[in-house]
Design brief:
Glutathione S-transferase Yfyf (Class Pi), Chain A, domain 2, 4-stranded mixed β-sheet, 48% helix, 7 strands
Length: 259
Amino acid sequence: MYDIKMFPEFGSTRVSSATAVEIALHEAKAKHIQYQIDLQNKPEWYAPKVNPASKVPAIAYGGPDVPPDQPSPESVKLAESLILVEFIADLYPNSGILPADPVLRAKARFFVDAVSTKFVPRWQALLQGKGPVHDFYEAVEFLQGLLPEEGYAIGPYSLADIAITPFLGRARIALKSDLGGYPRGEGPRVLETLTSGNGRFARIGKYFHDLLERESFKATFDEVSSLVMHTEVVPLLTVALAQGYVTERYKARFADLRK
């Protein structure tokens, strides 16, 4: 029997919020089952029986042992990625996702807020060609200033790290493949600056490396099948990735963007 039934989007590694929940489940070693939702062709039962907002990810918790595509009204339905991550942390307190120490919990939530209000907006602006790399570097430096000398965002691995990891996974793909609205060649240069292990970003470069080498990330982020969507960069743009390279078809779309 599975107490947790998760509903991610089909091909959910393109959705950072779904990846965060999957990482939390992996870290907690939570027994669960998944039913992927195709948002372009949603099952008729999904909105009325799981999430009235018709968004993913969502979780059905408890209730009778039924197939995930037949959700029971007796199970509790929950949504919103960070709420789901904290819910998993509460179910599995020994996972360490949410620290027992109230000071560390506060630090973790402060780091999450910085990711949401500083890092992600500046990254999206850079990716879309609407913000200079200097502004993005300022956000990265702010996060770096929050890091302890060793370990993860607050020392031990926690909610704070889960919140940023999916964005880093997608950013690495975009920068490495030079996909974005920034000038041609800027992506690999930014990636090298952040990950070289030297200079102004040495500490956060080590932090990024440790996050992307963690087993829970590798187990939940499938680079081969993932799709990186940047609909604000090019309307209806979908970037297909496989084995570390991007198909020529989608490279051509970014070439059009840079003309």
